[in-house]
Amino acid sequence: MLNLERLRTLDALARHGSVSGAADGLHVTTSAVSQQMAKLEREIGQPLLARNGRGVRLTDAGRLLADHAARIISQVELAQADVEAHRGRAVGELRIGAFPTAMRGLLPAALTALRADHPDLRARVREQEPEEAMAAVVRGDLDLALAIDWHNKRMPVPAELDRAHLLDDAADIAVPAGHPLAGRSGTSCISLAEFAADEWISWNEGQFCHEWLVFTLRGLGVEPRITHIAEEHHTQLAFVAAGLGVCVTPRLGRGPVPAGVRLLPVSDGVRRHVYAVWRADAARRPSVQAGVAALRAAASRPGPAH
């Protein structure tokens, strides 16, 4: 009889395209992946992997079995969801992916509530950008993900996923204390168009937030001068404090602002929409429902995002 965990390993290899990718997705070592595949090949009696340069590829038999594995795993997960829903208790493991500011601003309170209200539910959290986290939910590598889009640019959500709005996260412009507009901190709102001559500090190229910044500034007739790239908001603020440019800084999970930085509220209504996503076929699972409820409660608490 075929072993389910070995089929999961084969499915991960097919989805990720490499041993290291499968190992990361399964949270195991590359040697564990290789061992599981060697055992599966002995069970099947024919090779499932072939060398491909420095990596590996699935053989014809490997692709055939991987297609069956994906369907088997989907049915097993559906059965687990039905059994959990029938039992009516949030138990087992809940795997959550969240972007950095949500990790700081929402997850501590949500996880504390889950631990208190559902002691038999074990939450595991992974820091991940929204696009990657949503793809992991679609694949079944995560149960829940926190995602964002912006007031003027929506992020596509795969059809297989349901979502729940958690909060709207206002954003400010961070400028050096010596900036000509710094004196307007804490008073009237300012337009992004007023920073046409400034150098910008942005997120990594290719990330949704970087694309949003370029899209928004160009929509205001401003060709952005992006000089520095930094993924973490705290790093961006450190660059602002050093007088190296300006940046957009959302309030969720922002924490203390460095000395030498002034925050300017934006008149353009700049804000992010933060929401939770999960697979539609897992909507009845008590663990998913408990996770969404805890995130909603954490989002409703007074804080810097409101």
What is the arithmetic mean of pLDDT?
A: 88
Number of domains: 3
Q: What's the CATH topology label of the largest domain?
A: D-Maltodextrin-Binding Protein, domain 2
Distance between the termini: 55 Å
The parts where pLDDT drops under 50 for at least 5 residues are none
Portion of residues in helices?
40-55%
Question: What is the element string, with H for helices and E for strands?
Answer: HHHEEHEHHEHEEEHEHEEEH
Largest sheet: 7 strands, mixed
Strand content: 15-25%
Number of E-type strands: 11
Alpha plus pi helix count:
10
Question: Summarize this, please?
Answer:
The protein is an alpha/beta fold and 306 residues long. Helices cover 42% and strands 24% of the residues.
Can you walk through the features of this model?
The chain is of the alpha/beta class and 306 residues long. The protein folds into three domains: 4-85, Arc Repressor Mutant, subunit A; 90-167 and 273-300, D-Maltodextrin-Binding Protein, domain 2 (3-Layer(aba) Sandwich); 169-270, Periplasmic binding protein-like II (D-Maltodextrin-Binding Protein, domain 2), CATH 3.40.190. The protein is 42% helix and 24% strand. The strands form three sheets. Strands 3, 4, 5, 6, 9, 10 and 11 form a seven-stranded mixed β-sheet that branches. The protein has a two-stranded antiparallel ribbon with strand order 1-2. A two-stranded parallel ribbon has the order 7-8. Helix 1 (4-16) crosses helix 3, helix 1 packs across helix 4 (60-87) and helix 2 (19-26) packs across helix 3 (30-44).
Key features of this structure:
306 residues; Arc Repressor Mutant, subunit A; D-Maltodextrin-Binding Protein, domain 2; seven-stranded mixed beta sheet; 11 strands; 42% helix
